[in-house]
User: Fold these one by one.
Assistant:
Number 1:
Amino acid sequence: MGKYKVPILLLCVFFNLHHNARTYSPLEREIEAKLKLLNKPAVKSIRSQDGDIIDCVNIYEQPAFDHPALKNHSIQRVPNFLLESQISRTGDGFNVSSDVYQTWQKSGSCPEETVPIRRIRKEDLLRAVSLARFGQKPPEVFVNSINPTNLNFSNLNANDGVVDLKNRSDALLVAYAFQFIGAQANINVWNPKVEKPEDFTTAQIWLKAANGPDNFESIEAGWTVNPKLYGDHNTRFFVYWTKDTYKSTGCFDLTCKGFVQTNKDIALGATLGPVSVPSHQQYEINVGIFRDNSGNWWLKVKNNIPVGYWPKELVSNLQSSASLVQWGGQVFSYEVKKTPHTGTQMGSGEEAYNKFGVACYMGGVRIKDNSQALKYPSFVSTHAIEPYCYSAFNDAPYGKDPVFYFGGAGRRPPHCP
Ligand SMILES: *[C@@H]1O[C@H](CO)[C@@H](O)[C@H](O)[C@H]1NC(C)=O
Ligand SMILES: *[C@@H]1O[C@H](CO)[C@@H](O)[C@H](O)[C@H]1NC(C)=O
Ligand SMILES: *[C@@H]1O[C@H](CO)[C@@H](O)[C@H](O)[C@H]1NC(C)=O
Ligand SMILES: *[C@@H]1O[C@H](CO)[C@@H](O)[C@H](O)[C@H]1NC(C)=O
């Protein structure tokens, strides 16, 4: 037996050298290096039914700690403030369930001291516009950039909701005129159609602050259908951050260094289910983003479950407060604001005025300001940049908790040709 050991080992070495020499182009080497940087060593890996692989990574080895600004950051394991538990389901709980889970959770769980991270594969990188922009939203560029009369980044206000963006279409509820230190909503879960491979659609919350004269910072969470990023048409739970209007910083989920995850049961970018059924059972997920006393912004779901946080080191003005909160949907497509319009849907794919059971909604909309109370915002406005394609309607009957409806089908002639 012993005499075979050496030849086999040599054969392996020879094969590897040969293999490397033959197949590794510069691009492939770059891809391998990027994968190695993004995918941290797993203590355990879970193969999910939806095709994802979830790696349970030691909490101290997650991507965030590669960030130069987080060199001296000591991880915060729990938020240093009391979590609120006030908000319940939307619509008096009538045919509404908050029993939303993540598909991978059916196939296993991560051990203590680890966090679940969706593994990034070579094919995911190959779908990206470029390796450098993998995991990033395209930059926001304003249609009226020569004379942005309705835009002042030093003083973000309601007008930011009506700003016309290139290749993006929004339907939003906007809260302004305050310094916000938190926001939340129950987001109705759907699986809208995404028509073009580079399109994506979101239902989400944004908290924004100015960062210099021509940039804003934003931290975001919600659900998205984004085939370019995730490789399928599933509805996925996501987070995002940027400190320069999506130009170069930030990304979705843990596809770059930044967000610090603390929860071992919830994976960012993972498939959500079940989704709502028209005129029948509605599913919603409570999502909240709250600043703690040290300036970190915590993400929590299902009222009281902390997922992790955006460390204060990532942002500048957002460290103290957000000056704008937006709830609603956004479609990114090269075929918005033109004819023929993209058929990518927003929300449930139905228009806002169809209301409960048909249109997508945000219920239990709340903000927190320096009074520390969780409350419905004093000033809100609604904005839809292409109302015949994607509409916005805030249903606020006297004495009832308002529900914000939004969405649409995209192309639907004659209204949205
Ligand atoms: C980390 O701490 C060292 C020593 O106190 C300091 O020199 C360095 O600037 C710090 N780095 C960051 C990114 O804060
Ligand atoms: C933008 O807002 C800041 C602060 O409120 C103000 O000083 C500045 O003059 C404004 N700029 C424009 C172009 O309105
Ligand atoms: C509530 O759900 C049940 C079962 O899915 C359905 O039969 C009923 O029509 C729904 N009611 C409303 C008002 O949506
Ligand atoms: C918007 O889409 C067009 C193609 O229709 C593209 O040329 C342009 O670069 C895009 N702009 C931005 C800011 O993404």
Number 2:
Amino acid sequence: MEKYVIVVLSVVLTSTVVQTAYKPNALKQYRKDYEYNPKTDAFYKLHIESARHWEVKDRCKVEGAEPMVPISDFDIMQVHAMLKQFGDIGKYVWVGDDGLSHDSAEEPAIIDLDPEDDDIEETGECDVVTRGGDIETMYCYRDLPFICKVEAKDAPYDPHCSVFGKDYVHYPLVGSCYKIPKIAYSWSEAYSECFAEGAHLVVINSAMEHEAIWNLTNTGPKVPGARASYFFFAGYRAERPVGFEPVEFRTIFNQTLDEAGFSAWSENEPNNALHNEYCGSIFQNDGKLNDLDCSHRFAFICEIEVTWSP
Ligand SMILES: *[C@@H]1O[C@H](CO)[C@@H](O)[C@H](O)[C@H]1NC(C)=O
Ligand SMILES: *[C@@H]1O[C@H](CO)[C@@H](O)[C@H](O)[C@H]1NC(C)=O
Ligand SMILES: [Ca+2]
Ligand SMILES: [Ca+2]
């Protein structure tokens, strides 16, 4: 064990040196919240918010990744190094199934009161990596942190959209790339997700961009979990007014809608339903704007502006 820790430390130190050394183009960058490991040529993110094992695959997938399967010692060292930054989140992290059998980390029942009871077996156990660097198993229903990984070869640089990954669609006439992540989020969660991707919640700046967004909202499968499938959160917000002040929607860049270049609301919108709609969205039926409750979960659109060069 001690020998192992020394190996881990020296690897961690070496990779730190590699990462801080100035080498143009040497360091790959996926999303802002992923860390590159040159030893595995892959990107990793430790999700310190916990989830049940069966939720992990989808959560990684939203980020274009998969649950990390510990296929090499470098993967384990990566988990070890990332966990070290968070002393408070317990000893175990969900990982993907490596197909091998491992010992259970669960305490065996001291006295089996009912030998006929085989609930535990039905519950099933799933793979974890421990702080000590072992692969063990725990009950799949536990809430644990988890780790996602994407290999650099699966997240190639997209020169049209200036982003790593394959999910952004380029609209050359508009000069932007767009993505509808496959998850429903509150407005703030959506804002953060786009930011982590190196993008921002979509802002419509022209009639042509309106056409493109309208088209985009009518392509592709519905996002699961959305409160209504025909609204997409976008980069507009208003402050909740004090008293009878008028409600004024601005873009996330603090422009008025007119300054942004597109100010068409859907019919009878903004209606501030239940006096609680201060976040902007795009309505699929006409591609125009609608106000929504910021805390409800909807699909959303991320945008990356790209400079057109001949
Ligand atoms: C949107 O779709 C319509 C019909 O499919 C097409 O005519 C139009 O050119 C598209 N607009 C953009 C900006 O892609
Ligand atoms: C946004 O713009 C308004 C109007 O120009 C200005 O009063 C306000 O201070 C701006 N807000 C920020 C955070 O810059
Ligand atoms: Ca735009
Ligand atoms: Ca509304």
